[in-house]
Amino acid sequence: xxxxxxxxxxxxxxxxxxxxxxxxxxxxxxxxxxxxxxxxxxxxxxxxxxxxxxxxxxxxxxxxxxxxxxxxxxxxxxxxxxxxxxxxxxxxxxxxxxxxxxxxxxxxxxxxxxxxxxxxxxxxxxxxxxxxxxxxxxxxxxxxxxxxxxxxxxxxxxxxxxxxxxxxxxxxxxxxxxxxxxxxxxxxxxxxxxxxxxxxxxxx
Length: 204
Ligand code: ATP
Ligand code: MG
Hints:
Layout: H1 3-30, E1 38-42, H2 48-61, E2 66-70, H3 79-84, E3 90-94, H4 100-103, H5 106-124, E4 131-135, H6 138-142, H7 148-156, E5 163-167, H8 173-178, E6 181-184
Parallel strand pairs: 1-5, 1-6, 2-3, 2-4, 4-5
The structure holds adenosine-5'-triphosphate (ATP) and magnesium ion (MG).
Residues 48-49, 136, 167 line the site of magnesium ion.
């Protein structure tokens, strides 16, 4: 390539980047509101709870106070629980008893979920919590153990600047409609289907 070709290419690249920067800067300037967000992380792919705990780490890093409520709790030996329980600004509630196919008791699962929601309700009324993570909430909603109107109403009446992250597969439409940010994790491949068991630090 000649010197003039190289210079042309560099000039075109600079011009393209300048235009792109104008568009990005304008979009950033437009987004000037502050509010507590409702985020829903759903879909069949891996990454919902680990993303929620990534935000938990971010919030704690900023000195924010975090409440975590875990609804369907398959195991109590996760790295996130061991790590976050050592932190000062976090309250960690395990509200579920395990997967439905393990408990096999509708009445008990319903009572556990309702009792769990009453603990979440307290956090949703407490301005000291900057972030509330409700892990695997979609299951008690889908199974009808919790009343959707009640849950939406409690979420809507939370403090103005409080963020809430909800995880779980198959998030109901009404929950997604109420959310500010919804991400659907898509399952492209998962090692489990090749016979690989859950790996420490990755899956638990
Ligand atoms: P993670 O906690 O890893 O972010 P998740 O919250 O997206 O996963 P869950 O549906 O809560 O997914 O599943 C919990 C466990 O099942 C985790 O150990 C996760 O790695 C594993 N898992 C998630 N997605 C799949 C999948 N598509 N196939 C098999 N196992 C999965
Ligand atoms: Mg999960």
